Amino acid sequence: MTTRDWGVFALHHGDCLDVLRGLADASVDSVVTDPPYGLAFMGKKWDYDVPKAEVWAECLRVLKPGGHMVAFGGTRTYHRLACAIEDGGFEIRDQIGWAFGSGFPKSHNGEWGGTALKPAWEPICLARKALIGTVEANWAEHGTGALNIDGCRVPFGEGDTTASAASAGKGAGRATANADAPAYGKGMGGVVAAPHDLGRWPANLIHDGSDEVLAAFPQAPGQQGDVSDTAPSAKTSNVYGAMARVGEASQDSDNGGVVGFKMKPGARRLDSGSAARFFYCAKASKKDRDEGCEGLPQRVIGTWGGDDDDLSPGKKSTVPRGNTHPTVKPTDLMRYLCSLVTPPGGLVLDPFAGSGSTGKGAALAGLHFVGVERELAYVDIAERRIATAYFGRSAFGEVA
Question: Which helix (H) or strand (E) holds 13?
Fold first, then answer.
């Protein structure tokens, strides 16, 4: 077991259990990891099984009280991952869905049909170590226990429009209303949601912004009205896109202006556009995978086509690359997840560091990082990618 310590980040080469057992109790703020899925992907031995409960128990021990963990899983084996995490002592808080357009069906086909569906999303387990006392007390003592909501709000896009933007003095053509805040104002219960400059509340769905994913989201207005069990309703009430109530003053209007306090029963988002605007978009850069690896041997590894190769589904890559890891997550996605579960300036742990996408994301989020990786070839790749993200250039001299 060896360690490459760069001050702001460290990489351990060794088995994760051995390394974790050498870390101090309650010494990290969060765990963000993309562990093996247990699918034997591309015949890789490291992917033959999902991590056992004892690995997650060690992660729990080194986490501060109230610390969060996010761990990716495969759709076929997520149940085994979540059970092992729970058996390790974590409380499962939620499941985040990451939707993407680059997957293709790895199917055996014949006149009888096929054997697999097109993969279009992956589940991410969101878990937390038990609090000591209340969330407020735990946060005051350890800086952990809560999610970084304001730091991870979904930014408003240029296509979002809202009437409440003008009422909040923010100008027209850009949404500024906080869809999640309680209604404010006097009169009949208040009608306009309090604005929040940072954007919408983070959701448990993330997407890649690809045309294929966006096509699945309809053009949709925001929240049309709070559900009421007293007001008379149309036959289509409580159906998506038909939440307005009979008797609501503005139910038949286009809500193009600021709605007065006579509108009932409650708040409106007052914006429009693709429903995808409600969810964080993590787009992968084409240079993301190999940035920092210019000095490594360039090899064709035969990975299947996706966004970074501009290939059609089902075709293998013939692009030589320095990063030979077959399952590289987008850095923007990892940066977002690190920010979501880690206090500002905190320390992120990844016990399955792979080619360093979590470390790269932590660097771009202004966080410290410690990673563990068993495969030496991947340690070399991860070190270069993470060093480039932290220092703006490779410390190995190949990148200006």
Answer: strand 9-13
Q: What is the pLDDT of residue 220?
A: 75
| 280 dihedral zone (left: phi>0; alpha: psi -120 to 50; beta) | beta
Residue pair 189/265 in contact by the 8 Å Cβ criterion? yes
CATH T-level topology, domain 2-110+117-152+281-391: Rossmann fold (3.40.50)
d(CA 371, CA 31): 10
Question: Which residue's structure tokens are 């850095």?
Answer: 331
72-118 pLDDT, tens digit per residue, is: 999 989 999 999 999 999 999 999 999 988 777 777 788 999 988 98
Q: Is 95 exposed, middle or buried (0-12, 13-18, 19+ CB in 10 A)?
A: middle
C-alpha 66/C-alpha 139 separation (Å) is: 8
Closest CA to 270 of 220, 223, 318, 304: 223
Looking up tokens 């987008």, which residue turns up? 330
For the chain, give every domain's residue range: 2-110+117-152+281-391, 155-200+220-271
Distances from the Cα of 271 to the Cα of 76, 247, 330, angstroms: 37, 22, 29
Residues 6+ apart with CB under 8 A from 169: none
Give the predicted TM-score (pTM) of the model: 0.78
Please tell me what DSSP assigns to residue 277: G
